[in-house]
Each structure stands twice: as structure tokens, then as C-alpha cells.
Amino acid sequence: MNPAEFLSLLHARHCQRAFTDEPVSRGALEAALSAAGQAPSGKNTQPWRVIVTTGARRDALSNALCAGYDAGAKPQADYDYSLQPQPEEWMDRARACGYALFELKGIARDDVPARKAHGRENFTFFGAPVHMILHLPAGAERGNFLDAGMFLQNLMLALTAQGLGSCPQYSVAGYADVIRATLGLPADRWIICGLSIGHPDPAAVVNTFVPERLPLVDFVDWQQ
Ligand SMILES: Cc1cc2nc3c(=O)[nH]c(=O)nc-3n(C[C@H](O)[C@H](O)[C@H](O)COP(=O)(O)O)c2cc1C
């Protein structure tokens, strides 16, 4: 692969939120996980762990999460995702991203049932046949999260390179107790996020969604 091809792979990866039911081969998942495991980590600690669910286990997890969501259980993740309060410019971008996604899906801003159904799709894993759970030891620190993030990005890129799609999901981590109970994880493991994986549905308009990125001038400060 030449540099331009590699860079175009980075530009090509965007979240996919509709999948066909075509199964994902074990070989493709192993290749992606093995590539992901090449991620750097502080002193090579490799803190990441993943559970790969398919078939009946994937369905059991989805059903348990949907039950929690439908019951109106308040999401309670093991860690806060973001700085609070968020800087106004982050909020603006988050809102713009959400509104653009709703517009693409034809969901009116005041259509509460449609918005709820949209949120619920997180817990049916957007129809993906594979769902992974990324977990770390309870009490993991910022550096461990940094390492896990690099693993996650490697994983998503390796999936993209094989024609697969994925969507990382903090929403899923909001039901950490449900996940631990369903998958048999002890309390001393933190649920970092879920990752839905499958063959993207080429007919789904939602899969064309690419939120706008900042130009370099907005996030790079050249000093010499
Ligand atoms: C750690 C993490 C958690 C995320 N959680 C969700 C989620 O729960 N549901 C969802 O639809 N997208 C989720 N996203 C996807 C982001 O919204 C998406 O990455 C962002 O809007 C940029 O879009 P792109 O990845 O398609 O380029 C998450 C992304 C990350 C990195």
C-alpha cells in the first residue's frame, strides 16, 4: 500500500449505522484484532481487553440492553466521557452532528418517538451481526484510556481495510451493569464502549453520513 492509499483509508473510515445480516468471517475479525493489538501503549502494557459476541450471545446482549433502554433505566457508565461543562464550541459541534444525522434520517427535531427509536438502534447494534465490548480494569487512568483508544482506532481501520463497517458506542457503556451481568464480567472491569461490526448496508442513506471536520488552521499551531 502506498502512502496515498493509506491516507485515503483514514479518510474512508466513518461510522456505519446500518448493516446487512451477512455474517462476518472469524478470519476477518482475527486479522483486525491482531492488527489492533499492534497499537502502542505506555511501556507496552496493552491494557485493552475485548469480548466478541456473535449469534446467540450477541442477541442476548442486545435484548438485555434493549430491555434496560425500554424500561427507561437511567444510563450509568463506569466513567464520564467528557469534560463537564463542555466548552461551548464542543457543544455546538455535537448539536450540529446530531441535527445533521436526524435530517438525513428524516427525523424532525420535535419528533420524540422517532428520536427514541433512533437512540434504541444503538442497542440493536444497528443490525450488525457482531458486537464487541472493550473493557479495562476498574480505576483505569487517562493513559490507559489513551492506549485503549489507539487499539480501538486500529481495529476500526483494520475493519475498514477489509470492507467492513463499524460504529463505536459509548451509549452501550451506559448499561455497564447489564453488560457485566450478561457477559459474566466481574465488577472490577470497566466497560469502555461497544463496537458494532458488520457489512455496511450499501442502500442505507445513514451510511453516507460524514460529519464535517475542522480545517487544520483550527487545530494546529505551527511554531518554529
Ligand atoms: C468512543 C466513542 C463513542 C461513540 N459513541 C457513539 C454512540 O453511542 N452512538 C453513535 O451512534 N455514535 C457514537 N460515536 C460515533 C461518533 O458520533 C462519530 O465518531 C463522530 O460523529 C464522527 O463521525 P465519524 O466517525 O462517522 O467520522 C462514538 C464515537 C466514539 C469515538
Rg to the nearest angstrom?
Answer: 18 Å
- Catalogue the ligands: flavin mononucleotide
Biggest sheet: strand arrangement: 1-2-4-3
Q: What is the class of the domain at 19-80 and 123-208 in the CATH system?
A: Alpha Beta
Structural class determined from secondary elements = alpha+beta
| Element-by-element helix/strand order | HHEHHHEHEHHE
Average residue pLDDT: 97
Uncertain runs are: none
Helix content estimate = 40-55%
What does this protein structure show overall?
The protein is an alpha+beta fold and 224 residues long. The chain has helices spanning 3-12, 26-36, 55-70, 88-105, 112-120, 142-161, 170-173, 176-183; strands spanning 49-53, 130-137, 165-169, 189-198. The protein has a domain at 19-80 and 123-208: NADH Oxidase (3-Layer(aba) Sandwich), CATH 3.40.109.10. The chain contains eight helices and four strands, in the order ααβαααβαβααβ. Helix 2 crosses helix 6 and helix 3 runs antiparallel to helix 8 (176-183). It is globular and about 55 Å long. 27% of the residues are buried. The model has no long low-confidence stretch (mean pLDDT 97). Bound molecules: flavin mononucleotide.
